[in-house]
Design goal:
Blueprint: H1 3-12, E1 20-24, H2 28-31, H3 40-44, E2 53-56, H4 58-64, E3 73-76, E4 78-79, E5 91-92, H5 96-101, E6 106-111, H6 118-135, E7 139-143, H7 153-166, E8 170-174, H8 179-185, E9 191-194, H9 201-213, E10 218-221, H10 223-226, H11 231-244, H12 248-257
Parallel strand pairs: 1-2, 1-10, 2-3, 3-6, 6-7, 7-8, 8-9, 9-10
Antiparallel strand pairs: 4-5
Helix pairs in contact: 7-8, 9-11, 9-12, 11-12
The chain binds ribulose-5-phosphate.
Length: 260
């Protein structure tokens, strides 16, 4: 791995704790104005001081994020479909040149294992990895879960391993029973957890704790942070679980203590 690639990865995953709290706010690329992100800047800007990285699209950055922010950007570069159509039908929507111009620290795309356009999404990842390695830009692969996919370690392990073998530098996948098997299947490639649909704050913290205990390098959470009634309290609590190994009950107190 070249120096630039290592340096960029170290900006995302803290080299001291080997952990990361990434804030995912890229939902609009296929969901439109997702609850909590209609005015993305209003929701996201107050959370930036607590995020190690921000997963976002180029359009959202230009509209809602100031150029003087200094959080590493993990730029969503796949899309081309919507919730009204087949989700796996993605293409690369942002060129590597544009990603560099935006000063992205990493780029990201989804991979739909078992989806109708599985091969196309793996091809997107492979192309990005080739370009990323040329320019020293890491690629985060999201194992996107279609409606009919089981969220178990067998499926998530299969999807994650295919992303690893295709060359992804970070894997984003979902919490499941026996999560350690998914981590093991990824070798030395860091694994971060996607949050999924909004659930109770304590349950979301328990999920984060589970993956950290089973070897994840951190989380890349969206709705369970920005749709919380106290988003700052929630991201602080998630940080405590991820970076400080704090038990869920104590982390929950951090969330509760925060003002609305
Ligand atoms: C969509 C994504 C989102 O970033 C991902 O779903 C994370 O957000 P959440 O925690 O809300 O699920 O990668 O494919």
């Amino acid at each position: 791995m070249n120096w630039g690639m290592k340096n960029r990865l170290a900006r995302i995953i803290n080299p001291k704790t080997k952990r990361c709290v990434m804030l995912a706010v890229d939902h609009g690329y296929f969901q439109g104005p997702t609850t909590g992100l209609r005015n993305l800047g209003k929701t996201v800007n107050p959370l930036l001081p607590y995020a190690d990285a921000l997963m976002i699209t180029r359009g959202a950055i230009r509209n809602w994020i100031s150029e003087d922010m200094d959080i590493p950007i993990v730029l969503r570069v796949s899309g081309g479909q919507s919730i009204l159509k087949e989700l796996s039908n993605e293409i690369i929507t942002t060129s590597i040149c544009n990603a560099i111009r935006i000063n992205a620290t990493a780029v990201t795309c989804s991979v739909y294992i078992g989806g109708e356009f599985e091969k196309q999404s793996i091809t997107n990842l492979a192309k990005l990895v080739d370009e990323g390695e040329h320019y020293g830009i890491p690629v985060l692969a999201v194992t996107a879960v279609g409606k009919d996919m089981a969220r178990d370690s067998r499926y998530l392990g299969l999807a994650s391993r295919i992303c690893v073998e295709t060359g992804a530098h970070i894997i984003k996948t979902y919490n499941c029973e026996n999560f350690e098997e998914v981590v093991e299947a990824c070798g030395n490639t860091p694994v971060v957890m996607a949050g999924g649909k909004k659930i109770g704050e304590k349950d979301a913290l328990t999920m984060a704790k589970n993956v950290i205990d089973k070897g994840a390098a951190g989380v890349d959470m969206g709705r369970n942070i920005f749709q919380s009634s106290k988003p700052i309290g929630m991201i602080k609590a998630v940080r405590a679980v991820v970076h400080d190994n704090i038990p869920v009950d104590e982390a929950y107190k951090i969330y509760e203590k925060e003002k609305k």
